[in-house]
Amino acid sequence: MASIWHWILPIVLLGLPSIRAEYGDLAGNWLVDFGQKDLILSEKESHPLELHIYNVQIKDPDADFRFLIYSEDEARASASLTITKDQFDDLGSWRGSVTVTGIRFGYSSLKVTLEGGTEPETYPDNLPISVLRSRVVDERVTTYVSAALALLMFLNLGTVLDLHRLAGIVCRPVGPVVGVVSRYVIMPGLGFGLGRALWPGQWPLQLALFYTALAPSGGLANVCTVFCKGNLNLSVATTTINSLLALAFLPIWIMVLGRLLYDDDDLEVPFGQISGGAAALVACVAIGVLLRLCVPKTTRFIFRFLKPLSVVLSLCLVGLTVGLNWFVFEEFTWQVLVAAISLPLAGYLATYLLSKLLCRSATDALTLAVETSVLNMTMPIVLLQSSQLEQPQLDLVLVMPITASLVSLVLFLLFYIVRRCLGWNVRQDEEAFDHKQLMAAAEQEDDGPHYERP
Predict the structure, then answer these.
(1) Looking at residue 198, which CATH number applies to its domain?
(2) Domain range holding 327?
(3) In the predicted structure, residue 280 carries a pLDDT above the cut 50
C-alpha cells in the first residue's frame, strides 16, 4: 500500500495548482498613489514622478520586505527604484519620487511589486506611460514633397499616352471596371480578412492594413507597367478612375467597416486631400498629353529617357518616404511581413484570374494585376493621419503601409527579373507598351510627311 502512495502522491501534487501569493497576502491591501492617471513624455525626456505607498501592514514583523518600482517595457521607458523596510514610517507609509525616462516611442506602464515572501505581489493598477517620438521633420513636408514627385511622374507618363487608344478604353471600359472591382471590392476584403486573422483585438493595426489595401495605386504602378510591357494607357486610365472614385468608395468603406467593426466614431475621410490629389493627377496627365500634341520636340526627349526618368522619380519618392519614416521598422514583426507579402500576391492572382474570366488579353490582365498589386505608400499614411489615432499609436502602425508598399515593389522586381531571364518580357499584342515603336513614331511625326517627286 505504501508503495502505491509513493507513486500516486507526486502525481496528485503535480495536478494541483501552484501556490502563488496574491495581492494582499503579504502586507494587506497596500495602496499606491501615482499622483496622476497617466504619464506622457517624449523620447530622451526624463520626468520625476511623485509616489505615495501607504496602508502597508506586514503580517510578519520579522520579514524583510522591499518594494520595487520599474517600467514594464524597459525598451520603451526606464525607471528603477527600490524601497526597503526601514524607509517606511510606523504607519506603513512612504513618499518619494522616481525618475521615468522615455527611451523609444510606444507604450509601457509603471509597476510596483512587493517582495518579501515566497512569491512577489504586484499592485493591480499600473500607471500607463506613453512615449512620443521626437519630431525631426514636419509630416506635411513628407506629404507635399511626395505628392509633387508623384505628380511629376504622371506628367512624365502623360506624354506617352495615345488618345485614340484612351478613347477606345473609355468606350469599352471592361478593363477599368475590373480595376475598380479589384481595388474597391477584392483588395479591401483581403485586407480586412488578413487583419482580423493576424491581429485579433488590435484594431489600429487592422485599420492600417485595411487602408493599405483600400488606397488607390499611384504612379509606381504605372512605372511598373512600362517595364513589364503592359498596357500603359489602360494603367493610367485605371489609376485616374480609381483616384476619382475614391471620393465615393472611401467614405462607404470607412462607414461600414471603420465605424461598425472597428468601433471607432472618430474615423474621418480627408476629402480635401483626396479631391485635390485626384484633380492634380488629371491635370498633370492632361498637361503631358498637350505637351505631346503641341511641343513634340520636347516630348521626344522624354520618350528617350522615359525609363531612367521614371526610375529616378520612383527612387526619390520611395527614398523620401522611407528615409523620413525609418523609425517604423523598429516595430517590424512577423505578422507585418506575412501581411505585406500576402496582400499583393493575393491581389495579383485574384485580379489576373478575374481579367481572364472576362476575356481580357494577356497584356490587359497583366496590366490590371500589376495595377492592383503594387501598393500605394502615401495615401494610406494620409488616411491614417486623418483617423484621429493618438500618438504614439499612429507612429506604431505606419510600419504596415510602408512595409507593404516596399515588399510589393520587391515582389514586382523579382517578377520582372524572372520574366527577363525566361524571355517572357516581350510585347504580346499591339496594346503593349513598346519604347522603340514610340520613338519611331515620334521621329516620324517630327519629320513630317514625305512626298515623292513626280
Answers:
(1) 1.20.1530.20
(2) 139-446
(3) yes
